[in-house]
Write a structure and sequence with these properties.
Layout (H helix, E strand, L loop, with lengths): L1 H20 L19 H10 L5 E12 L2 E13 L4 E19 L5 E22 L2 E17 L8 E18 L2 E8 L13 E8 L1
Antiparallel strand pairs: 1-2, 1-8, 2-3, 3-4, 4-5, 5-6, 6-7, 7-8
């Protein structure tokens, strides 16, 4: 469910940024950048004029979606510290809310429609590497404290609540254009019964300022 609206937003950003900012991205020989790939051009000019280079950048992701059976919301603010043009560390918070309906099937081939909702909150730590200024590789650790309600437990009881920690380790690759990065990441610790994400493979849509 979460990745449905991720994909829609990613496609719209790809169309917009490819037209408006593609000219800002050019490979630089010897892995050296003539401009700061993490900040707007105006910030680069100010940094060059003052003789100081920015180290901290901010960004993240905010999205929501309404679909036939429910609502999804994701809020993920992030801060980044740049060690060099090729390496950054990222720190962030993540909140995911999902509410909707699902169909429960039984051994006698009967089924019923049940309501559910879940809340997940936690933090994240990421290592980001840019071998060239338009390619971003990342490894991100994200533990989420999750509460899920409205499910059946193993005894068939309704409104069963589950409270637990779900841990994700995401390996990703993204294309960078201007202040945006979009691509894919894969959770190598994905567990379909506990993860608030619908799939181990999810889109990456990030921005920096």
């Amino acid at each position: 469910m979460i990745n449905k609206f991720f994909l829609l937003l990613a496609l719209s950003l790809i169309i917009h940024t490819a037209k408006a900012q593609d000219s800002q991205v050019s490979p630089i020989p010897d892995k050296t950048y003539t401009t700061n790939p993490y900040a707007p051009q105006s910030a680069n000019n100010q940094s060059s004029a003052s003789g100081m280079e920015r180290k901290w950048y901010f960004g993240g992701f905010l999205s929501f979606a309404f679909w036939n059976e429910g609502t999804d919301l994701l809020i993920s603010p992030k801060a980044y510290y740049k060690f060099s043009p090729m390496f950054m560390l990222g720190f962030g918070l993540t909140y995911i809310y999902s509410d909707g309906e699902y169909r429960q099937y039984y051994e006698d081939n009967s089924s019923e429609l049940l309501n559910y909702h879940s809340n997940s909150i936690g933090g994240s730590f990421a290592i980001i590497f840019r071998p060239i200024n338009f390619l971003q590789l990342s490894a991100e650790y994200e533990p989420l404290h999750t509460t899920r309600q409205g499910e059946h437990n193993s005894l068939g009881e309704d409104n069963f609540s589950r409270i637990y920690w779900d841990t994700g380790l995401f390996l990703g690759g993204s294309y960078v254009t201007g202040n945006f990065a979009f691509g894919l990441r894969y959770n190598i610790l994905y567990n379909s019964s506990t993860s608030p994400y619908a799939s181990a493979l999810t889109p990456v849509v990030s921005f920096y300022f």
